[in-house]
């Protein structure tokens, strides 16, 4: 599903690489945590998988496609197979929960009719039934992140990338979001989550890949934070 | 639905930066009207050239002491010359008649001149007016010829002036177009910045590049076309009130500007306005919204 072969990424003007000769293979349906201190290269990982950055050397395969050599006009179609949530939610403040999710459908060419059918369903799934017409500022942090998850999942992506999705949430809310991600994972979606929330990692008992200084220092099947 | 989305995005975008939009439209209008005006002038000058040159002739003034035989020889030579399309012999009397009509408002002058003071001449129409030099070399120095005058020489000075006015208008248009270009680029950047959140989400969920860029490009195109329409309105007003109004006497001396020449600027200015805006917007976005 996801494969990194000898991936090195050095940003321009950086003295040392963010990722240094990294090899990872993630199977379909897995739930994987990437952990490590700030600046260890975790976020670069997400950016590589989204083709927001390209590796300096090495190959990245996502959904058995070679992302490194992908032509730029193919990137939009490629991103439709990936959902993504972030620490800062990235919702549109002038749109309601419903409109935020529908926006993701409309801009890739789905009709309003499709949105009317699919969006309430997915909002129900993330536990926001009845709050469709609230604006982001009328929702709590946890609820906003649920909207973001709904937006990421509404296209039924093969992979869900989560970049510190609980970073802005209190522990209880974090656990609720994790339950949600777990539920999405059970539908067969591969989930890759970057975090440094030790509680969550320890509770979930899923595969843990630890990165430090751009190198993988641990890859454990049912791991804990450390 | 996608069309509807794009259209509403364009309108909202134009309205959101309404002062920028107005500035963009005005600069566009000014530069395009200069482009249009110089295009009208270009066509006008060319039509004037054609019109006058069709009537131009080479005058071969004859020596007052010319003999009948020399005149006959010249007549024969012109008659068989392949460069000559037609020619007439103008006698002193005919020249005098012409002189009288030409200076009918100066009777003193007409009084002072007698028919035999004016030179007789051959008025020669060339097949190709550019061939004047050849004719000049061929006939200059022939017995009985006093002077050979190409009327084109006189007009060339006038056309040189017109051409320089025309290139000045064109240079002005280019400078204005450059300003308009920068303004379009800037407006598009502001528009893209004000929609950066939407753009970020669109990129994230995999909206196609054209779908992200189309509203911005169309915004610029709408402004460009609006500018072109304003510019066309300006040219129509200029034709109505300047060329057909206060400057009418001038256009009568020169050839009058035809409506068809004004109309022809509409597709020209619209095309240039739309294309320049679209390309500028697109190039700006290429740098600004990197995928």
Alpha-beta classification of chain B: alpha+beta
Number of helices of chain B: 12
Inertia-based shape of chain B:
elongated
The average pLDDT value of chain B, as a whole number, equals 82
Strand arrangement within the widest β-sheet of chain A reads: 6-7-8-3-9-10
End-to-end distance of chain B: 24 Å
Multimeric state of these chains? Answer: heterodimer
Number of helices of chain A: 7
Number of strands of chain B: 4
Helical fraction of chain A:
25-40%
What is the N-to-C order of secondary-structure elements of chain B (H for helix, E for strand)?
Answer: HHEHEHHEHEHHHHHH
Kindly, what is the distance between the CA atoms of the first and last residues of chain A, rounded to a whole number of angstroms?
A: 26 Å
Mean pLDDT of chain A: 93
Amount of helix of chain B: over 70%
Shape of chain A: globular
Fold and architecture overview:
The complex is a heterodimer of chains A (226) and B (291). Chain A is of the alpha/beta class. Chain A has seven helices and ten strands. Chain A has helices spanning 42-49, 75-79, 97-106, 112-125, 141-153, 171-186, 198-204, and strands spanning 2-9, 19-26, 31-35, 57-62, 65-66, 82-86, 159-163, 190-194, 207-212, 215-220. Chain A has a six-stranded mixed sheet with strand order 6-7-8-3-9-10, with helices on both faces. A four-stranded antiparallel sheet of chain A has the order 2-1-4-5, covered by helices on one side. Chain B contains twelve helices and four strands; from the N terminus they run ααβαβααβαβαααααα. The longest helix of chain B is centred in the middle third of the chain and has 44 residues, at 151-194. Chain B starts with a helix and ends with a helix. The interface between A and B is medium-sized, with 25 and 18 residues.
């Amino acid at each position: 599903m996801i494969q990194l072969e000898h991936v090195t990424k050095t940003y321009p003007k950086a003295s040392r690489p963010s990722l240094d000769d990294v090899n990872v293979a993630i199977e379909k349906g897995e739930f994987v945590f990437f952990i490590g201190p700030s600046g260890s290269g975790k976020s670069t990982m997400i950016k590589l998988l989204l083709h927001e950055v390209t590796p300096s050397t090495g190959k990245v395969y996502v959904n058995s496609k070679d992302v490194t050599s992908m032509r730029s006009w193919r990137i939009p179609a490629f991103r439709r197979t990936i959902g993504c949530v972030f620490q800062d939610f990235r919702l549109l403040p002038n749109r309601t929960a419903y409109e935020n999710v529908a926006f993701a459908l409309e801009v890739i060419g789905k009709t309003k009719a499709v949105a009317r059918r699919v969006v309430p369903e997915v909002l129900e799934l993330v536990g926001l039934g009845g709050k469709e017409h609230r604006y982001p500022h009328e929702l709590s942090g946890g609820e906003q992140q649920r909207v973001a998850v709904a937006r990421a999942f509404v296209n039924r992506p093969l992979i869900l990338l989560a970049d510190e999705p609980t970073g802005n949430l209190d522990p209880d809310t974090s656990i609720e979001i994790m339950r949600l991600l777990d539920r999405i994972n059970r539908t067969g979606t591969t989930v890759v989550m970057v975090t440094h929330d030790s509680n969550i990692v320890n509770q979930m008992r899923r595969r843990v890949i630890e990165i430090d200084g751009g190198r993988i220092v641990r890859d454990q099947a049912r791991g804990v934070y450390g | 639905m996608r069309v509807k989305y794009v259209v509403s995005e364009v309108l909202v975008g134009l309205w959101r930066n309404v002062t920028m939009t107005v500035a963009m439209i005005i600069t566009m209008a000014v530069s395009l009207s200069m482009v249009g005006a110089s295009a009208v002038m270009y066509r006008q000058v060319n039509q004037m050239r054609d019109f006058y040159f069709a009537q131009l002739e080479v005058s071969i003034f004859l020596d007052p002491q010319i003999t009948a035989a020399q005149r006959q020889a010249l007549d024969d030579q012109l008659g068989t010359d392949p460069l000559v399309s037609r020619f007439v012999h103008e006698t002193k009397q005919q020249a005098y008649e012409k002189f009288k009509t030409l200076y009918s408002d100066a009777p003193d002058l007409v009084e002072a001149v007698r028919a035999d003071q004016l030179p007789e001449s051959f008025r020669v129409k060339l097949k190709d007016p550019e061939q004047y030099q050849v004719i000049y070399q061929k006939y200059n120095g022939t017995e009985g010829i006093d002077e050979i005058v190409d009327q084109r020489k006189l007009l060339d000075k006038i056309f040189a002036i017109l051409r320089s006015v025309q290139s000045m208008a064109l240079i002005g248009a280019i400078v204005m177009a450059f300003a308009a270009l920068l303004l379009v680029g800037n407006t598009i950047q502001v528009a893209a910045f004000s929609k950066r959140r939407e753009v970020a989400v669109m990129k994230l969920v995999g909206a196609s590049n054209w779908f992200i860029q189309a509203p911005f490009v169309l915004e610029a195109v709408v402004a460009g076309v609006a500018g072109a329409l304003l510019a066309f309105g300006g040219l129509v007003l200029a034709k109505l009130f300047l060329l057909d109004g206060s400057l009418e006497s001038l256009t009568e001396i020169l050839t009058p500007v035809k409506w068809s020449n004004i109309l022809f600027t509409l597709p020209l200015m619209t095309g240039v306005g739309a294309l320049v805006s679209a390309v500028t917007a697109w190039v700006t976005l290429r740098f600004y919204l990197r995928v």
